[in-house]
Write a sequence for this structure.
């Protein structure tokens, strides 16, 4: 029984190493980082949803093309960006573990008005 468990463990470890070597795979930039430009207007974030791989390096460029201040908040990655009208803010961070996370503008009323989306890691 213990020998069988050992063989199983080696098999699992081998698959894990293979997956790590592949760096997630899929998407337009399988091994590199991901650059996303998000445009903010009243009351929309475009794109609202972002897809990434676990541990992937993400650079977001937040462009406020609206006439009031907007925020881009991603609590799972501890990120809160604030953009005045006409301002562009860039931030680089590491994608969290696989999951679907909320991203939104936390200026009062904006999330409810439609400024929300999902950060999808898989
Ligand atoms: Cu907003």
């Amino acid at each position: 029984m213990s020998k069988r468990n050992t063989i199983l463990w080696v098999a699992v470890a081998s698959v894990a190493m293979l997956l790590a070597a592949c760096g997630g795979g899929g998407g337009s930039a399988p091994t590199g980082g991901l650059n996303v430009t998000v445009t903010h207007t009243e009351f929309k974030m475009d794109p609202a949803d972002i897809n990434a791989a676990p541990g992937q390096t993400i650079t977001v460029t937040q462009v406020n093309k609206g006439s009031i201040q907007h925020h881009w908040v991603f609590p799972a990655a501890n990120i809160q960006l604030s953009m005045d009208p006409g301002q562009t803010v860039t931030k680089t961070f590491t994608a969290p573990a696989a999951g679907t996370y909320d991203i939104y503008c936390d200026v009062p009323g904006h999330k409810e008005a439609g400024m929300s989306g999902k950060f999808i890691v898989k």
